């Protein structure tokens, strides 16, 4: 049986694309194994779907000064030797890496054991872990066409991002049943990221009386961010986090307000959901969400509202514009080749595996 090691961790965004690939890999005869950190978010997510999981030591790679910069290299070195041992034990034909600090020792170990590696880069510019891994990889999968200019010529492949199959199984009527909504007004879904967004939550709640004149609102506000003082409002429902019901809630949503993480916006593109993107500002990130959002804006997929300009007036203007131009946004999304990347990535995995036999 063909064996593949998936790796990626630190955030859900470095794990869910791997999870999206697993059903197809198994269907095509691959035995799937996962290498992540000892206790990262990836451990729980992977063990929930009964994939063999191996933990290794992982240190953070930083562009800024921190006292841990003197100790974390030792963690990475330890992780490297652990990864070498694991890869020797599994003896895979392929490693697929989604990014995150834990992947660096795995990629280096795969190179030592002569196992080909494919890296997937979700954002326009590669993160630090992927930058380190790129010289050792056979191919680099990209979500955005702009990424190809940031990787060695001939290594980059525009594949799109892999999307979880269950997101396509949503049923609109189930979404209405879950929320108690009806067909009288369109539905607005607001997603502030897995931890929520204080700024987005704050502006939405200040604006909600006016928004409810035009929309019914599903607000996924993040763990610990439900505000009981708003639970009495008709047409407004709050969730800390949604898992199983997300596909049905997306199915009943007419437009979406979201952060601009690559996986999330790729899912909105695949589902053809008109959207407003509010990217994380560069003051609290490396600016990748701003680049992602502007790329989607330039392609006619999204309306972009930067957090610094987010207020009651700008939010209402954005909602009105996106809703009334929703057909145009949907048409643009229908005409792109950047849809579900599962097929493209599986094809590339099979090609490289066959070439290395």
Automatic annotation (TrEMBL):
Catalytic class of the enzyme: transferase
Catalytic activity: di-trans,octa-cis-undecaprenyl diphospho-N-acetyl-alpha-D-muramoyl-L-alanyl-D-glutamyl-meso-2,6-diaminopimeloyl-D-alanyl-D-alanine + UDP-N-acetyl-alpha-D-glucosamine = di-trans,octa-cis-undecaprenyl diphospho-[N-acetyl-alpha-D-glucosaminyl-(1->4)]-N-acetyl-alpha-D-muramoyl-L-alanyl-D-glutamyl-meso-2,6-diaminopimeloyl-D-alanyl-D-alanine + UDP + H(+)
InterPro entries membership: GlcNAc_MurG, Glyco_trans_28_C, GlycoTrans_28_N
Stored Pfam families: Glyco_tran_28_C, Glyco_transf_28
EC number of the protein: 2.4.1.227
Pathway: Cell wall biogenesis; peptidoglycan biosynthesis
Membrane topology: Peripheral membrane protein
Keywords, sorted A to Z: Cell cycle, Cell division, Cell membrane, Cell shape, Cell wall biogenesis/degradation, Glycosyltransferase, Membrane, Peptidoglycan synthesis, Transferase
SUPFAM superfamilies: UDP-Glycosyltransferase/glycogen phosphorylase (SSF53756)
GO BP annotation list: carbohydrate metabolic process; cell division; cell wall organization; peptidoglycan biosynthetic process; regulation of cell shape
Any GO CC annotation of this UniProt entry: plasma membrane
GO molecular function: UDP-N-acetyl-D-glucosamine:N-acetylmuramoyl-L-alanyl-D-glutamyl-meso-2,6-diaminopimelyl-D-alanyl-D-alanine-diphosphoundecaprenol 4-beta-N-acetylglucosaminlytransferase activity; undecaprenyldiphospho-muramoylpentapeptide beta-N-acetylglucosaminyltransferase activity
Superkingdom of origin: Bacteria
PANTHER family, A to Z: UDP-N-ACETYLGLUCOSAMINE--N-ACETYLMURAMYL-(PENTAPEPTIDE) PYROPHOSPHORYL-UNDECAPRENOL N-ACETYLGLUCOSAMINE TRANSFERASE (PTHR21015:SF27), UDP-N-ACETYLGLUCOSAMINE--N-ACETYLMURAMYL-(PENTAPEPTIDE) PYROPHOSPHORYL-UNDECAPRENOL N-ACETYLGLUCOSAMINE TRANSFERASE 1 (PTHR21015)
Family assignment from sequence similarity: Belongs to the glycosyltransferase 28 family. MurG subfamily.
Name this protein carries in UniProt: UDP-N-acetylglucosamine--N-acetylmuramyl-(pentapeptide) pyrophosphoryl-undecaprenol N-acetylglucosamine transferase
Biological source species: Natranaerovirga pectinivora
Gene this chain is encoded by: murG
């Amino acid at each position: 049986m063909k064996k593949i090691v998936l790796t990626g961790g630190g955030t859900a965004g470095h794990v869910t694309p791997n999870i999206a690939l697993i059903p197809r890999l198994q269907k095509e005869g691959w035995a799937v194994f996962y290498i992540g950190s000892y206790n990262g978010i990836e451990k729980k997510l992977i063990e929930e779907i009964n994939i063999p999981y191996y933990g290794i030591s992982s240190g953070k790679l930083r562009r800024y000064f921190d006292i841990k910069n003197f100790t974390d290299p030792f963690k990475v070195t330890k992780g490297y030797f652990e990864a070498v041992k694991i890869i020797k034990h599994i003896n895979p034909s392929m490693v697929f890496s989604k990014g995150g600090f834990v992947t660096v020792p795995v990629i280096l170990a795969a190179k030592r054991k002569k196992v080909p590696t494919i890296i997937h880069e979700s954002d326009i510019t590669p993160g630090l872990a992927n930058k380190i891994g790129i010289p050792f990889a056979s191919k680099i999968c990209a979500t955005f066409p702009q990424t190809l200019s940031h990787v060695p010529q001939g290594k980059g492949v525009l594949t799109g991002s892999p999307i979880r199959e269950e997101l396509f199984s949503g049923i609109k009527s189930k979404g209405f049943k879950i929320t108690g909504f009806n067909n009288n007004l369109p539905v607005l879904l607001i997603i502030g990221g897995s931890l929520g967004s204080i700024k987005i939550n704050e502006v939405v709640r200040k604006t909600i009386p006016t928004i409810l004149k035009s929309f019914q609102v599903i607000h996924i506000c993040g763990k610990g961010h439900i505000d009981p003082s708003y639970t009495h409002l008709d047409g407004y429902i709050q969730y800390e986090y949604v898992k199983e019901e997300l596909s049905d809630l997306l199915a009943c949503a007419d437009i979406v307000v979201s952060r601009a993480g690559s996986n999330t916006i790729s899912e909105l593109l695949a589902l053809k959901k008109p959207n407003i993107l509010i990217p994380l500002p560069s003051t609290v990130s490396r600016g990748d969400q701003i680049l992602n959002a502007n790329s989607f804006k330039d392609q006619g997929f999204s309306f972009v509202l930067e957090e610094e300009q987010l207020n009651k007036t700008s939010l209402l203007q954005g909602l009105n514009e996106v809703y009334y131009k929703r057909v145009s946004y949907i048409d643009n999304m229908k005409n792109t080749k950047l849809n579900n990347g599962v097929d493209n990535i599986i094809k590339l995995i099979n090609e490289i595996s066959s070439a290395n036999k």
